[in-house]
Every structure is written in structure tokens, then in C-alpha cells.
Amino acid sequence: MDKPSLLHIGYPKSMSTTLQRCVFARHPEILFLGWGVGDLEHGWRDDRLAALCEVGIRYQKVLDYDPRKAAEIIAPYRAQFAADEGKKVLCLSSESFCFTMNHDVDATIKADRVINLLGGNNLKVLIVVREQLSLIRSYYYECVRGGYTGYFDEFLDQIYHYQFHSIVSDLRYHQIYQLYCRLVGSENVLVVPMEEIVADNGKAVGEICRFAGLTDMKLPLENFNSSDDLKFLQATRLLNEKFPHNQGATRFSWTYPEKLRAYWSCELGLPEPAAAKSTYGTSMMILRSARSVVSDFVAPLEANYSQEWRNRILALYRSQNSALATAIGVDLGRWGYAVEG
Length: 341
Known about the structure:
Helices cover 49% and strands 7% of the residues.
């Protein structure tokens, strides 16, 4: 019987970086391909794998995507995994697999691509969810760090009106759960509320290890990408207005050019465009300036829901959360998720 593979698809702002760096990268029985490998800037085992996961699976048009080439890229790691008796699980993790932004292909296309890449036999899928109001607020903070210039109401207005291609529609968790159940079988899909991980790290990590076929180990979890410093975020937003980049610029809007470097190099044989270098430099300048100086002179960034927005958003998810709670046997209402009844 083939050794199992573990596919972790997010969600964003649901402790993905924590799991990647503290569990998948540190458990001695996992051959971890990324994202989150060591101190590598792109977080993947090599440049070709980075290009595949950051562009091929995520952005590439259907007629351009080559599954045979994808299989060639992962083949050396499959061979390494098969030959290493100490490795029990081959793991691939990216929160971008579960949701769409402006340039992404649909989540169903990503699912087909990544499952074909890892192979459907003995494949386990881990989905970590988070109460939607909390996730959207945290996602807004992340977008501000990535160059977004607007206030919270502007952000909500944008992602709600364009939900046909924004993260809003992808937070209907039950339909994503059903998608992967159809592809690999419900017995091979584990959904864990992020709130359970926060409440009891050891218990949640143990559940994930047992699901994946790993030895349960005590792996301390660290916090990454904190949004606690709201003055820093407001300083960053103000600087984004003055110096547009990434999610606040037209050229690379809603993408991160630094994640495309491997694609430009490996697939196109081209150096990084000058505009990409410039926008990355602008991003680093803003984050460092906001942290060290500007945040001392601004008020905290506000991200509060009006009652109208709260009602409108929760109405999108109430039935989906209830269906998911029934399917996985977890009381999501306990953790503040909107449910029926």
C-alpha cells in the first residue's frame, strides 16, 4: 500500500503559517514540500515547485496548464519519499488552493490539479476553517499589509459586490468540504475549526497527526502574522496611499510579485521585471517605516462591522455552517459561527 500524502488547503488567516512552520516542517515523519520550508523566501523546496504551486496551480489558464510537466516536477520528491522509511507522509500545503482572488482560477480547478499532482490514492485532505466575520476582518488586515489602501467598509463593499470572484463565496465551507469529499472520499477529509486549535493546541495537533497517520508528538505552536498592533496597520495603510504597491497598484493588483519570481525564472527564462523589484522594495520600506516611526503618530486602524454588514454577511453562511456542523459532527455554534435555529 502506498504511503499517504497530506494536502492542507487552508483557510487563509486560520493558522496556516503556524501549521506549516511548527508542524509540517518540524515533524520528523513528514517530507514537507512547502509552503513554509525553512528560511527560503518562497517557502518551497525548489524554484520549479514554487513556480508550479504559486502560478501553475493557482493562476495558469486551463489550456496552458500541463499536468505531465507538473508530475515531472514532483517526481524526485515522490522517489525520495518512497525510499525513506522514516518518512510516513508526503505533505503539500497552501491556503491559496481553497479560495480565489482577482487572477486565480476557480477553486474546483485548483482541487483537480493538486489532487492529480499528489495522486488520489491514500490522499488525506486537511481543511482548517474559522468563523467568517473574524476571518474577513483578519484578511482585511493582511491585505493592508499587502498594499491595500481602503478602509474596512470599502473593503467589505468590494469583496461583497464582486463575490463572484472574491474570497466571500469561498467561505461557504460546506461546499468546499463536499468538493473534496467527492474527490477523495469523506473518510479522507478532516475539517478542524481554528478555534479548537487555539483552545487546545496539543489536542488539535494530535487529531491532525492521527488523521494523517503520524506519531502524535508535542510540537509547540507559535503565532505568526499577528494583527494585534492596529496603529502599525493604520500607519501601513496611510503609507500605502502615498506609495502604491501590490494590492494598491494597478500592475500587480491583488498579487505578490515576489511569489512570481520562480515562475519568471523557471518558466519564462526571464529576470524579475523592474516594476516587480520596485513594488517589493516599496512594500519593505512601508512596513519598516510603519513599524519603527509612523505608528507612533496615528490612531489605531478601525475594522468594525455595522449591523447591516454583519447581518448581510452572516446570511451568506448560516445554512452552510449548519450543514457542515452536521456533516463533521462538530458544534460550530459553540465557537461563534452563525448557524440555523
